[in-house]
């Protein structure tokens, strides 16, 4: 289980890495337009876009690491998860989980199944 809010910039600030060391795919379909865009921000969060109070889509943004936000978990494909490529993702906003700070979101993702040590 990987928590996608656990992505951080490398020390040189030139690359985003997931906690398992893989590069963040800047071309992934869940990035919001023109994101990531803030050189000072160190963590990735999700943002829910709504139209007339209806959830339309969840997007990935760069942010600081203390903001509370929705989050994404990666695991096998149980109910409420969406397959993108070889992995499955759960958008917390899709199942009504409240916004959480980065560490609590990571802990929640870890609790969903056997954690892979990331």
Automatic annotation (TrEMBL):
Gene3D superfamilies: Mannose-Binding Protein A, subunit A. Pfam families: Lectin_C. It comes from the Eukaryota. Residues 10-75 form the C-type lectin domain. InterPro entries: C-type_lectin-like (IPR001304), C-type_lectin-like/link_sf (IPR016186), CTDL_fold (IPR016187). This is C-type lectin domain-containing protein.
């Amino acid at each position: 289980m990987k928590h996608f809010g656990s992505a951080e910039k490398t020390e040189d600030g030139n690359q985003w890495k997931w906690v398992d060391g893989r590069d963040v795919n800047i071309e992934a379909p869940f990035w919001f337009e023109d994101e990531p865009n803030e050189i000072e921000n160190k963590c990735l969060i999700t943002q829910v876009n709504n139209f007339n109070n209806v959830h339309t889509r969840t997007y990935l943004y760069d942010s600081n690491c203390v903001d509370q936000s929705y989050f994404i978990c990666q695991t096998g494909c149980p109910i409420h998860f969406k397959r993108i490529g070889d992995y499955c993702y759960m958008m917390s906003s899709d199942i009504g989980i409240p916004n959480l700070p980065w560490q609590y979101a990571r802990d929640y993702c870890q609790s969903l199944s056997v954690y892979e040590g990331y």
